[in-house]
């Protein structure tokens, strides 16, 4: 996962969903539990995404409830980012169905619901020639938001030093860019935040800061979907897990159901790689 890959990086920024009207579906699969009651933020059945015949998603089911911090765990190439991109509307699906805030993927209103999402997928979407503050202001202008929270957001993610700085993002370290990406994701007070490897590149204080931001926002009702390979860190925040293999969530469990202190052993066990007997 690179941070800088172009002058205009490809975050989701979730602002230009490529396929908001995506997805014609034939699946007559199960109904979506409780989504009409408002307790389900995102629910999907049988999602399939193919890239030139390769099944990046091969029939994924997932249910994310309001207030969840949903941890998505799986090997490299198992399909996590593909799933995040589908949810954000950055790519279309080939089969399956989903609902976002109770709105079906076939509905014309899905783009409106996507405005309730914030996030960073793959790389933060940064203008390298602008400062951190410049990036936040630019994003506010793009999204029609007022700029009054910009300094507060920089403080929140530990970029206080950048409030009056002239340093361009081009010269940021990986962790600084990651922090800025999180600040961008928080613009507009999203109700559902998607983070792809948010701890990547962060120093120890950065990890603690981001963890606390996630927990604080969650306590205020924000739902999270977080993809992470760092199980020990994920287990400090996640309330639910989806374990991904070969483009499918093969196990979905709540944190209460497992011994999160030994999550690595649990993961080894469910992936057939052994682990402690009591894990
Ligand atoms: P990682 O943990 O390494 O980030 P991941 O679980 O996020 O991996 P994905 O990025 O979703 O995995 O990729 C799933 C599969 O789809 C991989 O085989 C990948 O090579 C393939 N893939 C992803 N994007 C594309 C694309 N744009 N074109 C072709 N194949 C792709």
Number of domains: 1
Helix content: 25-40%
- Total of DSSP H or I helical runs spanning 4+ residues: 8
Low-confidence spans: pLDDT under 50, at least 5 residues? 1-30, 275-279
Order of helices and strands: EEEHEEHEHHHEHEHEEH
Structural class: alpha/beta
CATH architecture: 3-Layer(aba) Sandwich
Bound molecules: adenosine-5'-triphosphate
Reading off the top of the CATH hierarchy, the class is best stated as Alpha Beta
The N- and C-terminal alpha carbons lie at a distance of 30 Å
Provide a descriptive summary of the structure in words.
This protein is 27% helix and 23% strand. The protein is an alpha/beta fold. The chain has one domain: Rossmann fold (3-Layer(aba) Sandwich). It has a 6-stranded mixed β-sheet with strand order 6-7-8-3-9-10, sandwiched between helices. Helix 6 links the parallel strand 7 and strand 8 (223-227). The structure holds adenosine-5'-triphosphate. Adenosine-5'-triphosphate is lined by residues 51, 54, 56, 74, 76-82.
Topology:
Elements: E1 40-51, E2 54-65, E3 69-74, H1 80-88, E4 95-100, E5 103-104, H2 110-114, E6 117-120, H3 132-143, H4 150-156, H5 174-186, E7 192-196, H6 204-219, E8 223-227, H7 231-234, E9 240-245, E10 248-254, H8 263-270
Parallel strand pairs: 3-8, 3-9, 6-7, 7-8
Antiparallel strand pairs: 1-2, 1-4, 4-5, 9-10
């Amino acid at each position: 996962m690179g941070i800088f890959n172009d002058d205009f990086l490809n975050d989701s920024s979730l602002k230009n969903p490529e396929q908001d009207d995506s997805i014609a579906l034939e699946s007559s699969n199960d109904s979506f539990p409780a989504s009409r009651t408002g307790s389900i933020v995102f629910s999907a059945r049988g999602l399939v995404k193919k890239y030139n015949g390769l099944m990046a998603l091969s029939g994924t089911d997932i249910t994310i409830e309001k207030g969840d911090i949903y941890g998505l765990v799986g090997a490299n190439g198992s399909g996590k980012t593909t799933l995040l991109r589908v949810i954000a509307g950055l790519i279309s699906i080939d089969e399956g169905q989903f609902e976002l805030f109770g709105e079906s993927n076939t509905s014309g209103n899905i783009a409106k619901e996507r405005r309730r999402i914030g996030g960073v997928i793959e790389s933060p979407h940064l203008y390298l020639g602008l400062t951190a503050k410049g990036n936040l202001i630019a994003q506010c202008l793009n999204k029609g938001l007022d700029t009054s929270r910009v300094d507060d957001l920089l403080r929140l993610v530990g970029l206080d030093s950048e409030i009056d700085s002239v340093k361009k993002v081009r010269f940021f370290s990986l962790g600084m860019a990651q922090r800025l990406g999180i600040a961008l994701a928080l613009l507009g007070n999203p109700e559902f935040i998607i983070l792809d490897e948010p701890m990547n590149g962060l120093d120890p204080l950065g990890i603690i800061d981001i963890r606390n931001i996630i927990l604080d926002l969650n306590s205020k009702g924000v739902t999270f979907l977080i993809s992470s390979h760092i199980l020990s860190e994920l287990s400090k925040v996640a309330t639910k897990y989806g374990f991904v293999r070969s483009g499918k969530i093969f196990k979905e469990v709540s944190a209460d159901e497992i011994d999160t202190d030994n999550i690595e052993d649990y993961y080894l066990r469910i992936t057939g790689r052994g682990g402690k007997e009591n894990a």
